[in-house]
Design brief:
The complex is a heterodimer of chains A (424) and B (166). Chain A is an alpha/beta fold. Chain A has 2 domains: 258 residues, 2-Layer Sandwich (Aconitase, domain 3); 144 residues, Aconitase, domain 3 (2-Layer Sandwich), CATH 3.30.499. Chain A is 30% helix and 17% strand. In chain A, the strands form 5 sheets. Chain A has a 5-stranded parallel β-sheet. In chain A, strands 16-15-14-17-18 form a 5-stranded parallel β-sheet. A 4-stranded parallel β-sheet of chain A has the order 10-9-8-11. In chain A, helix 2 links the parallel strand 2 and strand 3. In chain A, helix 6 runs parallel beside helix 8. Chain B has 7 helices and 7 strands, in the order E-H-H-H-E-H-E-H-E-E-E-E-H-H. The chains are: A alpha/beta (424), B alpha/beta (166).
Chain lengths: 424, 166
């Protein structure tokens, strides 16, 4: 524990949201919410609770975002009914940030892309991967449906101010090693509850050079270490990403030099291999060489973790001129309509189709075992998604391994888990 | 409030996919959800568990997804209380918010006999008694702010009270 009097970025954002001068870990604060998000699974529960208030308005229709992304395009009648609950609620309360199929995307790829995420703001989402937005210097955290209902009514949420762990990454990223590998290595080091109730600050020379897509991937999986949020302090890469997307004003917030951290954990990445999380836990992480030879039935490239344009580019680079192994089904799911369109323009989609991959419209689909690629008993999948719990992608006796898009693409060609170098 | 019931033991890092698999998330009805509680890790559990039973787990209970369907399924099954060494944070706030009693107890109770041993729980005092042996365990008390949410039956009651004041 360092002994400064300074504050971390998260402490400052929470203090400002609560209208107090200083917030220190352990304080319980009620904060004003700048954005509140729900999807087709969590919002119906929230809407049911919200109706108990008997209100004819939400606190601010501009600050509510509804994205039907989990079981859409509607997988069955029940899913269709749930999606309709969102659509009708958005109509009734004048919620403009409702994103329909064909214009939408996976929420955590969509919100930053649409310029809804601003540095220094407080964002809650009834989805655990809401922590993704920390990549843009926001305090963003997953909550439940009742929290969302309360926020839609009064625009506030309660929080205990978390302690912060700082993660420093030093060295030079080897070829084929990405933000996904950094976060898997981190979760592997500290465990699925290693950052429980804590904020995770990602920093150091490697992060300073890491692309926004890579940062979004890292912050996305803070929850897999139990983190309340993950974040990167705003810098030139952040501002370049925000340019042309964000129209509302914002104030970037930074941790003080003498901020107090519970712990500082350092990594030298120069010798790091691509990382694989073995089933059934995201902290069961080993190097790709230890996974060599594991036979695959399905490979999924997509999700809020790794369905962005950079992910598709690296996958296409590997798949160009190659064919998916005859035993393997490769699913590629661009995370948003805009990413889909960009991938189309860049010729990436034809690379996937010619490699005999199935390319889907944006959906969370297989990541949570919803639809679009459910596994049978005994099947093994390698996925660029975020969780590999028992039954996560289908049958309780199926298995999910987690990796970067590069490893996933290469392994789809090889039919077994391999280092990308073996396929290129 | 005093609760008394049979315990069911689960280990560490029980995730919300294990508590209620995503394929059942097309409903928000607690009883429908309860019919599939813990199905993928203990298929017979929905049949075994009864009203008033107590769920005991190790650390990081409820990790993973934010689905409120997880505490709803537990509540729907009639489980009176969840006692764990620690809870994942979203599950923790969801349980408080929907009025499902939970207690964090640093002592490891996962050695109790699942489906046989009984506990008595005094929620206000945070006292847990193992009925067979009479042994007492202490749970961490809730801060006053959370006690207020709990006393109003969850966050909706708490927010309603605030809206009424306005």
């Amino acid at each position: 524990m360092s002994n400064g009097n300074g504050s971390t970025m998260v402490e400052k954002i929470l203090a400002s949201g609560a209208g107090v001068k200083k917030a220190v870990p352990g304080d319980l604060v009620n904060v004003q919410v700048d954005l509140a998000l729900g999807n087709d699974i969590t919002a119906p529960v929230a809407i049911k609770e919200f109706q108990r208030f008997g209100l004819d308005r939400v606190f601010d229709p501009e600050k509510i975002v509804l994205v039907p992304d989990h079981f859409t395009p509607n997988k069955d009648i029940a899913a269709a009914e749930q999606a309709m609950v969102l659509r009708r609620f958005a109509e009734k309360y004048g919620i403009r940030h409702y994103y329909e199929v064909g214009r939408m995307g996976i929420e955590h790829a969509l919100l930053p892309e649409q310029g809804l995420v601003r540095p220094g703001t407080v964002i809650i989402g009834a989805d655990s991967h809401t922590c993704t937005y920390g990549a843009l210097g926001a305090f963003a955290t997953g909550v439940g449906s009742t929290d969302l209902a309360a926020a839609m009514a009064i625009g506030e949420a309660w929080f205990k101010v978390p302690v912060t762990i700082r993660f420093e990454y030093d060295g030079t990223l080897p070829d084929w090693v990405s933000g996904k590998d950094l976060i898997l290595a981190t979760i592997g080091r500290i465990g699925v509850d290693g950052a429980r109730y804590r904020a995770m600050e990602f920093a150091g020379p490697v992060i300073e050079k890491l692309s926004m897509d890579g940062r979004l991937t890292m912050c996305n999986m803070a929850i897999e270490a139990g983190g309340k949020c993950g974040y990167v302090q705003p810098d030139q890469i952040t501002f370049a990403y925000l340019e042309g997307r964000v129209t509302e004003p914002y104030t970037a917030v930074y941790s003080d030099d003498d901020a107090v951290y519970e712990e500082v954990i350092s990594f030298d990445v120069s010798m790091m291999e691509p990382q694989i999380a073995f089933p059934p836990s995201p902290d069961n992480v080993r190097s790709v060489s230890e996974a060599a030879g594991i036979k695959l039935d399905q490979v999924v490239i997509g999700s809020c973790t790794n369905g962005r344009i950079e992910d598709l580019r690296v996958a296409a680079k590997i798949l160009k001129g190659q064919k998916v192994h005859p035993r393997v089904r490769l699913l590629v799911i661009p995370a948003t309509q805009q990413i889909y369109s960009q991938a189309l323009e860049e010729g990436l989609l034809s690379v996937f189709v010619e490699a005999e991959a199935a390319v889907s419209t944006p959906t969370c689909g297989p990541c949570l075992g919803g639809h679009m690629g459910i596994l049978a008993g005994g099947e093994k999948a390698l996925a660029t998604t975020n969780r590999n719990f028992i039954g996560r992608m289908g049958h309780p006796e199926s298995e999910v391994y987690l990796s970067s898009p590069a490893v996933a693409a290469a392994s789809a060609v090889a039919g077994t888990i391999v280092h990308p170098e073996e396929v290129i | 409030m005093i609760l008394e019931g049979k315990v069911w033991i689960f280990g560490d890092n029980i995730d919300t996919d294990a508590i209620i698999a995503a394929r059942y998330l097309s409903t928000t009805d607690p009883e429908e959800l309860a019919a599939h509680l813990m199905e993928d890790i203990r298929p017979d559990f929905p049949k075994l568990v009864g009203r008033g039973d107590i769920l005991v787990a190790g650390s990081n209970f409820g990790c993973g997804s934010s689905r409120e369907h997880a505490p709803l399924a537990i509540k729907g099954a009639g489980i009176a209380c969840v006692v764990a060494r620690s809870f994942a944070r979203i599950f923790y706030r969801n349980a408080i918010n929907i009025g499902l009693p939970i207690l964090e107890c640093e002592e490891d109770l996962t050695g109790l006999a699942s489906g046989e041993d009984h506990l008595r729980i005094d929620l206000e005092r945070g006292a847990i008694t193992h009925l067979q042996s009479g042994r007492e365990y202490r749970a961490s008390p809730f801060p006053p702010f959370m006690r207020e949410i709990i006393s109003r039956g969850g966050l909706v009651g708490y927010v309603q009270a605030r809206l009424n004041k306005q």
